[in-house]
Amino acid sequence: MALFTHTAPAPETWTPQGTLVCQRFRALEGATVLVYTADSDQSPARYATACLGCTHRADRNALGNVMVERDAAQAANVHAAVCRALPRGVPARPTDSEAAKMIRTRLWARRYRAAPHLVRLSDFMALRVDLQRPTDWIKALLSDIAQAHPDFLAVTPAPSGQGVRFTVQPFDRS
User: Fold this and answer.
1) pTM
2) Domain ranges of the chain
3) pLDDT value of position 41
């Protein structure tokens, strides 16, 4: 039996729960930059990038559009070419309450718009590396929030008749 056993996953091979990592880039000082998509059946797949050495997260291209794999790979490569972050290892998995707070914060920011905001799982794409939660967990949390705070997050049946849609309600401006 070895005295010192390293059991933590290496950033070079780690895949956060709820994601599918398709590419990895090495930054200048060794940090790993991931290109990933969510574990959903959405088509076409949407991609994001995350640096495991710094706070870089991106789920949209320079024009503000969601990224396909080619866009995300290009963004990750550009970031890796200039990032001087040292490898920090795999980020700690947040507690359920910390992960829920990240999602509520993202949703709350949508309340400042004048019109209701239709929530999509892609709204959380850039957070997936930090959340480390599967799609089903996010959907269950959205249901819990909608049940507890219907004036904040409304739930309606999906037009297809299968599933539900969540909509962030703007602040009452009257």
Assistant:
1) 0.86
2) 19-82, 96-168
3) 63
